[in-house]
């Protein structure tokens, strides 16, 4: 039986808890973490800020495409 994968949290002291099978991999940095460190905010994910910026740009574009303009309202 292979050894259990351990949390990849880079801290002192090193976390030695087992990785969660279903939700232990961070979607941003692709590292594997235990239940305590699985959230990007808890393991200081390096790609979290770029992910937030991409989500902001996507939402901004969607809101601007749906913006109601006065000329459209006058025609209705």
UniProtKB/TrEMBL annotation:
UniProt KW Zinc keyword: yes
GO MF entries: zinc ion binding
Gene3D superfamilies: AN1-like Zinc finger
AN1-type domain: residues covered: 1-53
Upper taxonomic lineage: Eukaryota, Fungi, Dikarya, Basidiomycota, Agaricomycotina
Organism: Trametes cubensis
Protein name: AN1-type domain-containing protein
InterPro entries tied to this protein: AN1-like_Znf, Znf_AN1
Keyword terms, alphabetized: Metal-binding, Zinc, Zinc-finger
Pfam families: zf-AN1
Signal peptide start-end: none
Domain of life: Eukaryota
């Amino acid at each position: 039986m292979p050894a259990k994968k351990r949390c990849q949290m880079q801290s002192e002291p090193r976390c030695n808890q087992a990785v969660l099978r279903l939700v232990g991999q961070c979607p941003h940095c692709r590292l594997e973490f235990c239940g305590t460190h699985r959230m990007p905010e808890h393991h200081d994910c390096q790609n979290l800020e770029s992910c937030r910026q991409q989500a902001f740009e996507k939402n901004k574009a969607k809101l601007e495409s749906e913006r109601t303009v006065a000329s459209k309202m006058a025609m209705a």
